[in-house]
């Protein structure tokens, strides 16, 4: 083997020869193994280090360019980043997959086996965390200077197993065998205080001063993960904070002889970054959760100020060099924290600090569900963060003064706009803090942004309409097309070139090919092959064999009543009883595939998972059905499994109650991979339908307005059951033990909830859904027309690239420009 590589080549080269050499070096010197005893995991680690070095070169160059040019940067603050496996994605973005595959082959290794070794960092629950990850990919690919800030949870989202059809949670020990993608930065550590008291004093010059004396300190240490862009020599940082005990503090207890107490304190401190809260779209008002939020937000803002002060001596222009996007209200305490840092630590007057703060933050709202809007009790917040409560109350005093000046005598409006909820026990409304403390407020789809303006944040819209924006979510086509679906990507590239990967609107060039019978045939060959791959995985993971010829009807997402997996189930049952009535009925064979996790404490969601498995057991084993319907639950839905499932779908189920799903992004991933959607007019479904054309989208159900008027008129789900024979049989059979081995109690909570309450209007949309599903079945019989619609879906999904979302943010909100790293000497020519 050639032994004359330069250091630059060893760490940055992408030829097969140099890759082999770097890989073997890493196996020896980083993984500490000789080839005869190295395991597949060692090989994965050695390759991961090899790839990381290549991104490292890009990052060093990007970071030094940002530093030299003192650029304006984005800080994206998010309590969650649901990244998915790194290795495959980095190979794709670096454009070195085939060289790497070859290098591994020449060493007797199979790249796919190494890829399968990676344990994904599940540092998020679902859509919100995955959005943050898609945005990191697009920011780097568009060469926008950015840092993602979050928490390095030791335990990410739990792993889901199924036992007798029930969800069982297992801890996610993703760091068990080490994480080759991160760089520990013990030198980048900040102190974060909690509790204690506030002392007010007047200094010798007569200035009023406040000193917060916390009674506990926790250290936050940085761990950096490099995020490389696609086809560009740019890499940005994802900086995650891990909590560590502060030495000075244990020392005090230690000195008074309380060794045990000191150790317990240490454990308590380190608990802050121990585990991700597994609730999606519902808050748990736990003090540890607030500690997590404040912990990472404070570290991020202190780091931002540190970086700023490398190039400047005073903080008056902080907002010109940094803008901070708040991914939901989880980091909204940052508004008070930046005020505190500027006023208490950097001796800035309130007015100037407020001016900077207001011009620094921008806020993204992610939910309209009232149970998901964060409120912290004044008592709890005051105990944990007394100085912040003081600052929040002062922000509120000034804010309400302005409100009263503008709307004299309108006390109701003032109380609606207040940062403090006065009814019941007093609480801080984090969304209001975020609105007042930022220069931009955005929703994540057109409908959602409209509902924010007209309903949830209406008074804020009246007050400052210029702050309001919409940025419809997007997903990265690199991970969810190129990486997850290489067959379809190759077909597309063969047809229209590879420009679509960086400019997804170019998919429009596929439109004329929808009318080309030969292209449609190739499209079907690809879909068929991808479905075969998934069928094999389903067999492996569930033991259920599914027919790749059947319609793959897919609903994969977190389990939540508003997402209405149970509506999908009612349709399955309707088809099942149709077959039981007439086994000779002509039904389009379907495979119903579900996947998703339920929050561990969310009993109704867990019961719906059990019901899916119970219905599957009956339907799959019924000889009258004879394989025409299959119901499978794919366990442990995460990014890795999603990459198997999304490409193989024929039909995408996006059936939330109108007005409840802020945007959705699973809807985008599926349509981009050629699934047709059956969906409500909710979230981004509406925009997807507008783009792909209503004739290529199966729309059903009530609109937001119809839901509201039904609600107002008094909704009686029981009458719908009585008036619909199909529905009354289904409801009856759900409670008579048919699907529960004779147990008539098991599903009662679910059935009764639907009969007597049905808070998400499942029964109200049932008929419309079943009717539209009949059209789906008929449409799938004509494969030529179906394929045409599938191609047109993909061709018209360019708008839903996260690159477009990031461009929208840059142009309308952040005012940040792309930067080329200078002096780059690799195959990536700026
Ligand atoms: C995209 C994605 C989601 C979001 O799905 P929705 O259908 O928009 O709710 C959740 N989890 C994972 C793993 C994802 O990749």
Automatic annotation (TrEMBL):
PROSITE patterns named among the record's database cross-references: PHOSPHORYLASE
Entry's EC annotation: 2.4.1.1
Cofactor(s), by name: pyridoxal 5'-phosphate
Sites bearing N6-(pyridoxal phosphate)lysine, chain numbering: 669
Molecular function in Gene Ontology: glycogen phosphorylase activity; pyridoxal phosphate binding
Alphabetized UniProt keyword annotations: Carbohydrate metabolism, Glycogen metabolism, Glycosyltransferase, Pyridoxal phosphate, Transferase
Enzyme class label: transferase
UniProt keyword annotation of Transferase present: yes
InterPro entries recorded: Glycg_phsphrylas (IPR011833), Glyco_trans_35 (IPR000811), Pyridoxal_P_attach_site (IPR035090)
Gene3D superfamilies assigned to the protein according to its UniProt record, in alphabetical order: Glycogen Phosphorylase B
One Pfam family in the UniProt entry: Phosphorylase
GO biological process, one term: glycogen catabolic process
Cellular component terms (Gene Ontology): cytoplasm
Catalytic function, reaction form: [(1->4)-alpha-D-glucosyl](n) + phosphate = [(1->4)-alpha-D-glucosyl](n-1) + alpha-D-glucose 1-phosphate
NCBIfam families for this protein: P_ylase
Recorded family membership: Belongs to the glycogen phosphorylase family.
Protein name: Alpha-1,4 glucan phosphorylase
UniProt lineage: Bacteria, Pseudomonadati, Planctomycetota, Planctomycetia, Pirellulales
